[in-house]
Amino acid sequence: MTPFSFSGLLAGVFSLGFGLFVLIKSTDKKIGRIWFLFALSVASWEFGAIWMGLAKSAQECLLSTRISYIGVALIAPLFYHFVRTFVEIKSYKSILMHYIVGIIFIPMIFTKEFFWRADWIWGSLYYARGGILHHIFFFWWTGLVLYSHYLLFRAYRSVSTVKRDQIKYFFVATAIGYTGGSLCYLPNFGIDLYPWGNFTVFLYPIIMSYAILKHHLMDINVVIRKTLIYSLLTAGLTSAYVGTVTLLARLLENQSATPLLFPAELFRWFSRNITISFSFSCELTALFSLAFAFFVFFQGKRKPSHLIWCCMCLAVGTWSLGQGRSVTAPTPEESMFWLRWFDYLGAILIPVFFYHFVLLVLSIEQKWLLWSSYALAFCLEGLSLTGALYSVRSYPPFTYYTVPFPPYTLFLIYFFGLVLYAFVILYRHVTKAQGQRKNQLKYIFWANILAFSGGCTSFFPLFKVPIFPYGVYAVPIYIVMTTYAIVRHQLMDISLVVRKTLLYSLVSAVLAAIYVATITLMAHLLGGRHGSASAFSSALAAICITLLFNPVRLRIQRFVDRHFFREAVDQTVLREITGAFVHEIKTPLSNIALPAELTLMDMEDLKKGKSLADDVILKIQKRMKYIMDQALLAGSKVEAVREATVADHLAKGELDLRQVLKSSLKHMDEHLRHPRVKVQFDVPASLGPIRGSARQLEIVFANLIKNAAEAMAELPANKPHEIHIQAAKNDGHVQVRVADTGPGIKPEDTERVFRSHYTTKGPGGAGMGLYLCRQIIQTHGGSIKATGARDKGAVFVIELPVDRNGASK
To answer: What's the whole-number mean pLDDT along residues 405-410?
Structure first.
């Protein structure tokens, strides 16, 4: 693999991963989608660079370059669209025009006027030479990118401080990426400067990730625990450590280390040993899959879905182990052994286990198709064990690889047909799900999409597609994503309390195991080439590097403590929690102030003889009872907010939704009395009990009623002042609808009103009420949305899921 190909792999993985992260986490879905498409176009170019760097002929180089440029043609208009959306400068005609220009250039890419030949340069790879159309494309592309950065610079001077910090990091990140990536154009013009600048492209996701953590870029609020940062830093240092150990070992052996100091020599060395790294990766995947299967089995409930997921993990591990061992087997017989009893034993079962798992998770019954799939898998296992599906042949860089026989087509139809059908079913339910259920299904969907996409690259060598199956390295991602979903969203009903020390110890143990295995492998390879002294030299190098490694690691940890986590916690999490507390206790405390003041005045009148004691005592009794009620209400609200912010899996009991709504109305009596609001209460008693926290749900409904009353307070007396509360069962949900006849909500504000510290009430509003409402409803597995138009009133719709017994979860 050439350095250019490796830079493409690095930038492509980082760009695609960051694009998916923004798509999933961004609260502004429009801007999240645009950024994901932009990141996808960058990744398509970078993954194409891998192919370009590995091209064996000029024609293959031209083909790979032209296909890669489809993504390049869309990078500039997508970036321009994103910048205009991000800085809120609307110009739909201009955006559409540049999209059209980019699309027009795409068919031109495949003409000789765009790329007319490819030359062998730098003694390492072919590179395409541009024609007249390429030069025109370059000036349009570069001009649009520069103009987009100018828009950012212009907006920087006229926005708020927070937005200014976001723009600053965004500008720097994309400027670095574009500056380095644009150097890839130079050889197209005949300037044979090696495109080392492509290595800087992967920096833009890193810089923007920091901006997201520090300045909430694109309204993404991420809380990353210290242990995760430490683990990532440790992983990075360990990677650098392994490389340094190898170099130091060579120096201690009095061997010339100069060639290894050149990047090209390093890449050639790893290219010659790519089979070893492939096999090692497969065996690690098998180990992690096996460990994850046992983890789910022992930590989760003994449900069918858990057991089938364990079986799928075992099947993935079996396939991966067989895949890794079969390609390095010294004889065809041994390779066939690993294929029959491990590789295809697992590969044939993976689709049916995955399909079965999806059906169980979604509570879908398709018994006929399921058992037919198991029967077909059983038949394919028989064909595999008898040798009717495949054989092996020599296939460099692997020792041996699978040769498919005609019946292998049946396996391909079964594999892709069943997997794609399962993904279609899963996708339909992801789009319809709400709350925590949606998050769980979303992680299942994306984790397995990445795993299957990566694993399917192992089919390329079977059909002589000249692409190395690098995707196999991505298969373990499904374990990482699913584990995160278990910890974050209680996937498969597994709730974990991960202590810092335990997590950090486990990560350190895994890194240590990888480190020891890598050092052993390096010592073995060097020993084979330079004698047994390599093992001793590697051990001596390891001791020397360790003495330097620990102080550096501790210094970085202290730096992160001092400069990162303090600000992240103080400015985001603490701000939102305290804001929620203040918002909820403000009303009962305000209600206490007036009767307390009136009581003090009556006591003064009694002292001066202006009032009778009996009259004053009676008033004081009523007011004290009211003050006690408000104090208890404040305490109840504080406890409810604490429960909502501490954890979202606290035990919830059965409650009567109708009674909760009535209690919320009672608490809002003072707000409803002054503007003479008329309340229409249309909640049937036949709703039945739901499961949840009454105190938390009262906060939700009380906020909605109070907001409606305050919105109608400024209406003229001849206008209706009405709040309509409805509740009904609807398609497996309990739906509550709170509507008013107030001034309504602007269409562009229907999503913004749920953001923290966003208010339409001016200086008097805290902007936390509806934000807290959404947090509480989501912890109940439901959803809340706002609709309405100006001068037509606002409507808030809450949906809570019901279980099979009619109870809301």
So the answer is: 92
pLDDT at position 371 over 90: yes
| Positions of E strands within 649-788 | 653-656, 678-682, 689-692, 722-730, 733-740, 783-788
Q: What is the dihedral of CA 657, 661, 667, 670, to 10 degrees?
A: 180
Q: Is 342 exposed, middle or buried (0-12, 13-18, 19+ CB in 10 A)?
A: buried
Model confidence at 539: pLDDT above 80: no
Total Cβ atoms within 10 A of residue 767: 17
Q: Between the CA of residue 431 and those of 87, 279, 443, 490, what are the distances in Å? A: 29, 38, 13, 19
CA atoms of 183 and 193, how far apart (whole Å)? 8
User: What SS3 class is residue 799?
Assistant: strand
Beta bridge partners of 404: 390
Mean pLDDT over the full length of the chain: 75
SS (H, E, C) 271-320: HHCHHHHHHHHHHHHHHHHHHHHHHHHHHCCCCHHHHHHHHHHHHHHHHH
Confidence of residue 411 (pLDDT cuts 50, 70, 90): very high
- pLDDT, one tens digit per residue, over 637-654 is 566 555 555 444 444 567
CA distances from 172 to 35, 179, 391, 642 (A): 16, 10, 54, 40
- Coil vs helix vs strand at 238: helix
User: Using alpha carbons only, how large is the chain's radius of gyration in Å?
Assistant: 32
Name the pTM for this structure.
0.40
Burial of 182 (0-12, 13-18, 19+ CB in 10 A): middle
- CA nearest 408: which of 433, 383, 432? 383
Are 347 and 317 in contact, with CB atoms under 8 Å apart?
Answer: no
> pLDDT of 98-145, one tens digit each?
999 999 999 899 888 899 889 898 888 899 998 888 988 999 999 999
CA distance 218 to 208: 10
Q: pLDDT tier at 261 (50, 70, 90 boundaries)? A: very low
The helix/strand/coil state of 404 is strand
Residue with tokens 């003072």: 670
